[in-house]
Amino acid sequence: MSLPKVEFKCNCNTLRNLSDLYCCTQCSKLSCNYCCETKIDSYFCPVSLTGLSSDEVSSSLCKSNKHFQCPQCESQLVFQATTENSSQKLYLSCNYCRYRSDTAIGLTFKSMNEIHKEYLAKERISHTGKEMESLKEYYSKISKEMLKLREFNSGKFHRLLNVINSPYKSSPRLRKKFSTGRNFSPMRSIYSNRYSQNERTKLGGSTVGSNNKGGGGENKDDKFSSSLMSSKKTYGSVLPNSQKMKFNYTNLEEAIEKRKDKITNTIHKTEKIQWTDQIPKELKNKFNVTQITSLQQRFSQLTTQPRKLSELSPQRIRLMNKKSKQCPNCQHTLIKPEMNPNKSTFKIKKLALFVLPQIFISKITETFQVNKQSELVISFKNPTFNDMKISNLEINTFHLSYQDQDQDQNENKNKEQTTANIVVKGTEFSINGYDESAQFSDITLEEETTQKTNDDPEFVQQRKLNKVYIKMLITPTKAINLLQIELKFKVSCVLQSKFESEASAIISLGEVN
Amino acid sequence: MNNFFGKQIFERQKAVVVDFGSSFIKCGFAGEGVPQAFLPTNLIDLQTGEQLEITSKNNTSQKKIQVWKRTLFKRFYSIFFEILNVNPKNRRVVFCENVLLPNFIKEMIIEILFEKFHVVSLLSVPSPVLTLVPFKRHVGLVIDLGHFESTVVPVYQEIPLYSKIEYCSLAFDSVVKNLRSIVLNELKEANKEVYQIAEKLPEKIWNQIAVKTCFVLEQNPLILKKEKKEKKKKEFIADINYPCLDKEGNDTAIAISGKARSNASEILFNGNSQNDFEGIPYRILECLMSCNSDITVALSQNLILTGGTSMVPGCRLRLENELDWLLENEPHFKKLKGLQGKLVFQKHPFFNNYLSWIGGSVFGYLEIMNEKFVTLQTFKEMGLKSIPNWSHFNISKEN
């Protein structure tokens, strides 16, 4: 039967191994990976192990400029030289899967500097792309217009309503048609110019109820639509280009009938889109599956996503970084690595392993039975060089399991029932520090240590170097099944050692089946 | 960036755009034309070994919340620190959310981003709204074919109409299972040794086989049978050998017949006998029918296909043909008969994979969208558990 392990409780109320925790010396609180704050310290290239600044990283899109990875197997590519026709050319080759860039794509370089000019420049253009630039320009234009309109309106919406409704006070039908509630929408009000007729047709919305001369053609007003002057013109009149249409207030019914035809035309006119994709005939014939890219290979080249292996090109290797961690309470650094990417040591290392005693369950004399007393021995190990004092030792059982941590604590207090009676015959003891020279001494350790200290043998069973063994007597009172007895107990105590001047409370939990 | 007050030393940093799909996470910076990386969403909890899925089928239970928090935290940690090389403390985040995402997942993501990573501000937009951005449109019917489920969402004036959403669980997952069952049935009779090997292959490899070999036929073979329009000369579709290893280590191959390659994706159009009796084209027309008659015309001219499954060769052509056939022959859709021949699928210069990510990238780039970003202060002042919906537009100060 393997002995169960002891876990420590972190600041965020989760249970973790002692090796996963960090201990802050200033505020003496534990934190784990989940609750401490991480920050990026420095960037470096994993192949050449050179440091980089954050500006270089963002300008090169988080990838190194000089090193490439194989498109088939994602291992590093190496430059090699060939001599063709008395001129030396460089090509990329993979040592793992024998990929060569000159036979696969025909990619060769004259010198190392050439890579930047041709290959990377092309890649950067295709990364953002012309289509994306045009999208951005389009939307930023619209947003500028809307900002100007907003300044002009200065947020007084009611003024608009009065101006709009005044010419149509006589005809309620038109007021309904052209009231502002019609095309109102949250986004459109922010970045679309609802009075500019050209924008409305472009935006693909319904063109019902607008003065369209047959579906989205360009108007002369287009040039002036972005200037403030034109917005002033359209602001005063509801229907855009109303001056051109020469809307007569007297012959309303005739005018509506005329416009009806134009409305119906716009609905049924569909733009004929020519799609050129059809199933290529190669798919239906036999082909070699090994020559087709898998999803993962396609996603390394998102701009083209080729289907064939022969169209893949080498990609740049991703950069890496070094992180430092901070205590969530007092914002002191817990872990700080060295800036030099060649070294993997740390400047500041505040692990809980170096500060807190390690707790193990070392002996269980008999199997547990209900209403029968049995022994349990716990050992405390001191990692520091100085003596450690432990006081206010309490060992209690409680009913909490891993999964019930989310429930309210009040519920648990009511349900808490002791599953066993634990007797510990002492509350204070001290542990010796780690002594390197003791390894080489001839005297047996047990004799030396038990003679010097006055320990109650029922409390402190043994002492060894920097370990202390403590006895517990347990009589379980309740059982889950006929076969199983579950015990969970927690240990709380107060630590004092020379490094820490303040007290720290630890709660640890062990499971015994 | 253009600054209104002339040259400024401080440049506004690019926002981070994250799109959580059911099988791939797309992440990158705003203003760029392509995401930095496609990561597989393997939300596997390291402590318990459970695999979690981001779909609409999750049940809330308190025990699972801890598990979700741990896995989501690890995912975001790897996105920020390992792939994007970015400190989340100074960045704004644009989050493209799935329309049918359960609320508790959204709340957890917001909690993690604000409290663990201390993000400056957050904007969460439903992904159908973002897919309209590359088309420069405000109205559209977004057909999203994903990995575990597919949805049809009508969007009018940038608000998704939640009551008219159509949903079905026919997606790439069901195509892979269909392929597997067809191939195994054929192998049972033909070659028993290879059958044993093929039975034990994990799901990942069946995914790969489906990606590399499957495609969609132009016409529905069941419909052709009914109308007796089958051609006398059947089209020849070749078998393909997928290489694998024997028990002893020798090279063998699994023969994937032409029938399996072309019929695997029929499940998307004909439906399942278990859950979804009708295929995807039926769902599209149902959605059009349920919408108001003012909107249907505009929607029918702006059909938008997104999602990875729609990139299977031949998918769009087949959808057009099926929709035309349904409008002609199905008596259920009498109302929509006038739309026959007028359904238009819109074109775009990007790939269907990351359309909603591009919308997020544009939104993160625009300065006018700054008002819509929610900072931690406003989040706490409002006292809500989660950010209000996209259609709840009374947050802005001017109104």
Describe this structure in words.
The complex is a heterodimer of chains A (513) and B (399). With 513 residues, chain A is α+β, with helices and mostly antiparallel strands. Helix content of chain A is 26%, strand content 25%. Chain A is built from 14 helices and 22 strands. A six-stranded antiparallel β-sheet of chain A has the order 2-1-22-21-16-18, with no helix packed on it. Chain B has helices at residues 62-83, 103-116, 127-131, 172-190, 192-199, 203-213, 221-226, 258-263, 267-270, 280-290, 293-300, 315-329, 355-365, 376-382; strands at residues 16-20, 24-29, 37-40, 43-44, 51-52, 92-97, 121-126, 139-145, 150-156, 159-160, 166-168, 240-245, 251-256, 303-306, 374-375. Chain B is globular, with a radius of gyration of 23 Å. In chain B, strand 9 and strand 10 form a beta hairpin. Chain B starts with 15 loop residues before the first strand and ends in a 17-residue tail after the last helix. Chain B has 399 residues and is α+β, with helices and mostly antiparallel strands. Classes of the chains: A alpha+beta (513), B alpha+beta (399). At the A-B interface, strand 5, helix 3, helix 6 and strand 11 of A face helix 1, helix 6, strand 12, helix 11 and helix 13 of B. Chain B: Belongs to the actin family. Chain B: This is Actin-related protein. Chain B: InterPro entries: Actin, ATPase_NBD.
